[in-house]
Write a structure and sequence with these properties.
The chain is of the alpha+beta class and about 100 residues long. About 25% of the residues lie in helices and about 35% in strands. It has three helices and six strands.
């Protein structure tokens, strides 16, 4: 059936992202770029638990993404993949996936 799939992380220092799913170097580039934008150890929140950069990165990308479902299948582009962007780990994470008929 047709509908929408929601993928949601229940955390404030991780995000759900869509990125190229073929060349792993894009993941390295992604995290290298974010490290330049949000360096570690310079944020007020670091005094609390040392992960201010992780929270800022998560806010930028958000906790969820939604995807079309057509004929019972998730619709993604040829090179697209869904990933959890872990900004403060590794840690045990919970991901909620819901599918609503459309």
């Amino acid at each position: 059936e047709d509908g929408v799939c929601l993928v949601y992380t229940l955390h404030t220092s991780a995000s759900i992202v869509v990125s190229e799913n073929w060349d792993a170097s894009i993941q390295e580039d992604f995290f290298a770029a974010l490290a330049k934008l949000f360096p570690k150890g310079v944020w007020k929140h670091d005094a609390v638990d040392g992960n201010g950069d992780a929270h800022l990165k998560s806010v930028l990308f958000g906790p969820s993404r939604s995807f079309p479902v057509v004929d019972g299948k998730l619709v993604l582009g040829q090179w697209q993949g869904i990933a959890l962007a872990e900004f403060d780990g590794p840690r045990k994470r919970e991901i909620l996936v819901m599918v609503a008929k459309g």
